[in-house]
Design brief:
Blueprint: H1 9-12, H2 18-43, H3 45-58, H4 68-88, H5 92-111, H6 118-137, H7 150-174, H8 186-196, H9 211-237, H10 248-260, E1 277-280, E2 286-293, E3 296-300, E4 304-305, H11 310-324, E5 327-333, H12 335-343, E6 347-358, H13 370-381, E7 385-390, H14 396-410, E8 434-440, E9 443-452, E10 457-465, H15 473-486, E11 492-499, H16 501-508, H17 514-530, H18 532-540, E12 545-553, H19 559-570, H20 577-584
Parallel strand pairs: 3-5, 10-11
Antiparallel strand pairs: 1-2, 2-3, 2-4, 5-12, 6-11, 6-12, 7-8, 8-9, 9-10
Helix pairs in contact: 2-3, 2-4, 2-6, 4-5, 4-9, 5-6, 7-8, 7-9, 8-9, 13-15, 16-17
Length: 585
């Protein structure tokens, strides 16, 4: 479903006025059209014949551009599309670069109006002048800040790739002097290496039987030149990705907010993850916690605080997203939260269900619970005993040892979880959290950690088990926690979040349609890597009630980026670690 027209932060930004939005849309679409036409002119034979020569003549390129013109044209087209993407995100740096480019093209075309190609130049000058005028008129519509270090990084990438390309091409030429014309000098070789970066033939002549070396050096040089331009453009226009950290002052403020909320959500406590940051409503009565990944400001769960202040907190979050050109998105919020976000203009996708156990009605009796009952009985016969305690009741030395064991049991597996994981184990700051530990002969073998859900609930945070321990321990731990909770004023216990639970169930029902069966098969296949089906089946065996959870995003075109950020945040994929290290360097 989709909400009404955007309100709140989006409505207050001057660029969101109807006239401003229309002008910005014209600028963005004009840039896209120019980029697509440029790509077509470089890749397709017909457009290249019709547009190639007029374009070359209008911008004053020399006739010896050669085959590199095609690649340069393609790069220019891709660059225009990247620039259009930056303009759509209202990036100030993209606007400034667009102004420089259109002003330069307008000046070039005006200078050629008196030349032989004056008809084409006059038309091109009129188009670029119109775009320049629109850019100037809409200058206040581009407030978003790009990466503060982007200019420096862009310059470094440009220089590094250019120097590397020149060095490689020069090395090819210097090591093969017998394949060059006899009168070739070292200066000619350097000029050839420099010009190869832009696809232009240099002063070095090659004998007819050695043209392969000419092609090789031209290809290598042009490849480095393309990488230099595209890499510099990426760093120049990319949105900032600050390291999210929840400071002590914010953590204390959020804890106070959680303590006073009258109707808490089961995911509220996870806002205390220390790899998040937070933005508050102007009154301070509500907040949104989020993390920035891949240009996405990814919030999780409902806004914190009282519902009467949610709209103001959402507006403040969207203001910050607009100011930094981030795509705002929300993962795993409740139906109440989804309603509030939908009022701010977000599209809503039901993304899965949360399994919730009622401690007053939970029982192991009955045919439906036979499997859990037998599993727990086997674990008890194996000699495992369970201790369930609040973290504040556990000695610091024991807490430290349990945290060490949990880390060792995880091994080399990546730490997973964002929306329903606290990212720390047995931390003294979480005194109200509950830790259930399975022992045999006094040695810990598995543990579960639950965080508070208001005053009368618990939410599962962490499951760890010694790989050498017997199966069934997790089920025994869950059952014992529910039994313990019933005697300590806890009425509800939240287990794992089951992604696409409804789709899995529908696809397995008798009489399910072909689309439902196909979607269920896709999820079954994906479970080889992402544990979609196994988590659903683990939850389902306890016969819980299912509470829907939602994913919210601004528009369909933003969904792929949002899903990438979500996978990376949850530890199920996203950008490869090697790529992230390279980008940070």
């Amino acid at each position: 479903m989709s909400g009404p027209a955007p309100t709140g932060a989006f409505a207050r930004v001057p660029a969101r006025s109807l006239a401003g939005a229309t002008a910005v849309g014209v600028v963005v679409w004009s840039s896209r059209v120019v980029g697509i036409l440029t790509l077509a002119g470089g890749l397709l034979a017909g457009p290249r014949r019709m547009l190639g020569e007029p374009f070359r003549a209008s911008v004053g390129l020399p006739e010896f551009v050669g085959v590199g013109q095609v690649v340069v044209t393609v790069v220019a087209g891709v660059g225009m599309l990247l620039l259009a993407a930056g303009l759509r995100r209202r990036k100030r740096r993209a606007w400034a670069l667009a102004v420089v480019i259109t002003a330069a093209l307008t000046a070039v075309n005006l200078g050629r109006v008196v030349g032989p190609a004056h008809g084409h130049a006059a038309t091109a000058a009129a188009v670029t002048a119109l775009l320049l005028g629109l850019l100037v008129l809409t200058r206040r519509s581009f407030p978003a800040r790009s990466d503060p270090g982007g200019v420096t990084r862009a310059g470094q990438v440009l220089v590094q790739f250019a120097v590397a390309g020149m060095a490689v091409v020069w090395l090819f030429l210097a090591l093969n002097p017998h394949r060059l014309a006899p009168d070739t000098t070292a200066s000619d070789e350097l000029d050839q290496a420099l010009l190869s970066l832009v696809g232009v033939s240099g002063p070095v002549a090659f004998p007819p039987h050695e043209t392969w070396l000419d092609d090789l050096t031209a290809t290598v040089g042009l490849t480095f030149g393309v990488l230099a331009v595209l890499g510099a453009g990426y760093f120049l226009l990319r949105s900032p990705e600050p390291e999210s950290r929840l400071g002590p002052a914010d953590e204390e403020r959020l804890r106070a907010m959680l303590a006073h909320r009258s109707d808490p959500d089961s995911l509220d406590y996870f806002a205390l993850r220390r790899d998040r940051t937070v933005v508050y409503a102007p009154s301070g009565g509500a907040a949104v916690s989020y993390r920035v990944l891949a240009g996405v400001a990814l919030a999780s769960g409902d806004p914190l605080g009282e519902q009467g202040e949610w709209n103001a907190a959402i507006a403040a979050f969207l203001d910050r997203a607009v100011a930094h050109a981030w795509v705002p998105a929300v993962l795993a919020c409740s139906e109440e939260g989804a309603t509030a976000w939908a009022r701010a203009g977000f599209s809503v996708l039901e993304f899965g269900d949360e399994a919730v156990l009622d401690t007053e009605t939970f029982t192991l009796e009955g045919r439906a619970m036979r499997g859990v009952r037998q599993t727990v009985a086997r674990a008890e016969r194996a000699g495992f005993t369970i201790r369930v305690r609040r973290l504040r009741e556990i000695d610091p030395a024991e807490r430290a040892e349990l945290a060490r064991l949990a880390c060792r049991w995880r091994g080399d597996a990546e730490e997973r979880g964002f929306s329903m994981a606290l990212s720390r184990t047995a931390d003294g700051a979480d005194g109200d959290a509950v830790l259930a530990v399975a022992h045999r002969d006094g040695v810990p073998a598995a543990l579960l950690q639950f965080v508070p859900w208001g005053r009368d609930g618990l939410s599962l945070d962490l499951m760890r088990r010694d790989p050498a321990a017997d199966g069934g321990l997790t089920e025994q731990l869950v059952v014992d926690v529910v039994r313990w909770a019933g005697g300590h004023g806890i009425t509800r216990v939240s287990l794992n979040f089951a992604v696409f639970r409804g789709a899995l169930e529908r696809g397995q029902r008798l009489g399910a349609g072909p689309v439902a069966r196909l979607w269920a098969r896709i999820l079954h296949w994906a479970s080889r890597w992402w544990q979609i089906e196994s988590l659903y089946r683990f939850n389902a065996k306890f016969r819980p009630s299912w509470q829907p959870r939602f994913l919210l995003y601004p528009a369909v075109r933003d969904l792929p980026r949002v899903l990438l950020a979500m996978l990376e945040a949850e530890g199920f994929g996203g950008r490869p670690p090697a790529l992230l290290r390279m980008l940070h360097r």
